[in-house]
């Protein structure tokens, strides 16, 4: 496993575009800290984002993982390009000639996906600790390390999403088309969700039981948007008569769905590569 992972990391690091995108991704993650410096002063209307509680423990785990997940598309480009380059440069065929099996080849890619997800999760964890201890009003140990399930959900979300990107890279062979397919799939899920909700079952809860099983929808459901949890937003909602009934918890069932899709994507990748004439 160490040998397979070493081979993939060398390929990524020696590719200038992949190296720049990877570094850019982690630099952008660091920019979450800049949110703390954002201040608005519009006469009587003044507020400082850091003072709104976004960096309070344990809310920071929810907020930072949600924001960091938005930036995952930078690494998605790296994952898709990593696969496309195998076809373009002929390294896939060379690896197989050198004795690597097709299953080992996919395993090496999947290990890279897991490593990227783990490093990102660790990075967000450390950054959140620093920001939290700098701005949080609550620094008791029991509070600081509560709600860490958001980090688990974040890790699973990245592994699932990158596995999907890996499958698309193998399926389409060209990075631009693979990313385009990802966008199209996202649109297809949105259309299907709309049809189920407003056309087929307009007065039923059935769509809410079906759509969570869609791959991208299930990944999205792992970490629900955190902004409506803020006290300021809750106060405004109460004043205008809006009741917030959102469920912000991380559910094991959703994690299981995403892990199942991850297994499906990797299995399909292996099957596709085995059946393909290289």
Give the CA-CA distance, first to last residue.
24 Å
* Relative strand content: under 5%
Query: Class by helix and strand content?
Result: mainly alpha
| Sheet with the most strands: spatial strand order | 1-2
Q: What's the structural blueprint in terms of helices and strands?
A:
Elements: H1 2-14, H2 16-30, E1 39-42, E2 45-48, H3 59-70, H4 72-88, H5 91-97, H6 102-135, H7 141-144, H8 149-172, H9 175-200, H10 206-210, H11 215-222, H12 231-239, H13 252-275
Antiparallel strand pairs: 1-2
Describe the fold and architecture:
The chain has 278 residues and is an all-alpha fold. The chain has 13 helices and two strands, in the order H-H-E-E-H-H-H-H-H-H-H-H-H-H-H. The chain has a two-stranded antiparallel ribbon. A hairpin with a 2-residue loop joins strand 1 (39-42) and strand 2. The radius of gyration is 21 Å and the shape is globular. It starts with a helix and ends with a helix.
